[in-house]
Protein: Polymerase beta nucleotidyltransferase domain-containing protein
Amino acid sequence: MSQAISIYLREDVIRRLDAAVERCAAQDRAQGLEGRQVTSRSKLIERIIERYLDGEDPKFGMKEIQYHVIDLAKEYGAAKVSLFGSYARGEATDSSDVDILLEKGDIRGMQVLDFQDELSKRLGHSVDVVTTAGASERFLQKIRKDEVVLYAASRA
Structure:
């Protein structure tokens, strides 16, 4: 049996919640779900609360990050996109940002910032993008220790 409750949330939390609902609903529709099967606000809130009560980490996971990275990488023409840092190591906290290593491919100039902004918007979370062209070899070696490749363009 379900029971309705009222909760008050800050506007920024509501915006993040709605962005997460849109992401989940898009994934649901891509899997062929429709109508009441598609994630709604109440379904997502219930899922988050259940995960919390069950002791699970309610943060989004690598699969959700990869889903959006693949979509954007294809759209922008990236050669390779990897995750590094706390999310790649499975050590992310609420204050962690999503660290992305980008091999630009066809991406030029300010499009790197557009890629970063769009990924941040889709995840509803802070994203930092480092390009392979803009990083020192020493820094790249450090990153590669926990690098998880999320997307690599097929070489034709």
In short: The chain has a mean pLDDT of 87. The first strand starts at residue 80 and ends at 84. Helices lie at 11-30, 41-53, 62-76, 86-89, 111-123, 137-144. The two ends are 55 Å apart (CA to CA).
